[in-house]
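ZP: hey, is the beta-D-glucopyranose complex queued? I don't see it on the tracker
AM: it wasn't, my bad. submitting now with these inputs:
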Amino acid sequence: MSKVKLRLLSKQTLFHLSLIVMLGFAWPTRGHADTRVEDFDSIKLYTISNTSGMTIKVTNYGAIITSIMVPDRDGKLADVALGYNRVEDYINAVDKPYFGAIVGRYGNRIAKGAFTLNGEQYSLAVNNGPNHLHGGVIGFDKVVWTAAPVGGENAIELSYLAKDKEEGYPGNLRISVTYRLTDDNAIVVEYLAETDKATPVNLTQHTYFNLQGEGEGTILDHQLMLNADRYTPVDESLIPTGELAAVAGTPFDFTEAKAIGRDIGKEHQQLTFGGGFDHNWVLNAGPQVDGLTLAARVYEPSSGRQLEILTSEPGIQFYCGNFLDGRLQGKSGKPYEHRGGFCLETQHFPDSPNQPNFPSTILEPGEKYESTTVFKFTAR
Ligand code: BGC
């Protein structure tokens, strides 16, 4: 029988905190421009283990998955998630990588931070060049969630109330995200949300994976399959043009598994815009497993670790750490180099509120936002 092991590490966090203050490093105080924390003691770290040797750690700051320990083909464990040991490192990380967090209210970009809904114009925080990215200046990754273990299960539920007008969005939005670790080494992520006013919602999980282990070089040799015949090309500010373009014959074709690095250096305007792969793929409708689409499969040859992603979402953002540059040092002190991790963010398409041809992301009062994504690990 698996057991939820919840460890509340506020004491340890406090210890780190006072150490930081003693050493004179900048510590974000209440009211820090880039985070909203009323009480640092309310930030906890939870450990969940299963019977197959896998352990994940989750904090209620940003609903961040801070660690994913997974066996390789010989049973050797490595932490395959980029991240930090201390909450202050998440808060202070340069260039805001969103390591491991739930991003929202809208994952990815909304052009110029503007959209019209039911005849009303809305202006959101512009925090990425001319655009709005990942919910704004203080998105869901930078707030403290309420955490509750799910009784009798290897799971934790995190909830958050995003207030009307928060980052410019309409409506009070109640969100809950449950992370469930199964005994067959899957992390099941279930999202629920309800609103009292029509609003765009697009939640996603922003873990950066390196299946060799965090800090162990680039992910360019990982072999990726994406179950998508089309993707959404972007302009130079990474806003979709509205086209659903065929991947066939382009570097964006991952329908057969290939090394991420194989075509990344090819001449292609879209690769120039993204600085590599940083695009949304349009998932094929099938095959379905238990009502979810197999979206992606990533295999790392040296360790034998494999990650499969299944989802109820129509798209997946594949971002291969193009903005990492070695300045961020992770939890084991190793620098996270350029393309040292990849994200596979299941989602609706970027900028949907301004793109009439994309599936709608508008949640109406009385409706339920429900979304599920599974990250399944194996080794061979
Ligand atoms: C986006 C990137 C962005 C990264 C970190 C990804 O989801 O697609 O463009 O740089 O998140 O913010």
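AM: back. The two ends are 25 Å apart (CA to CA).
ZP: great, adding it to the tracker
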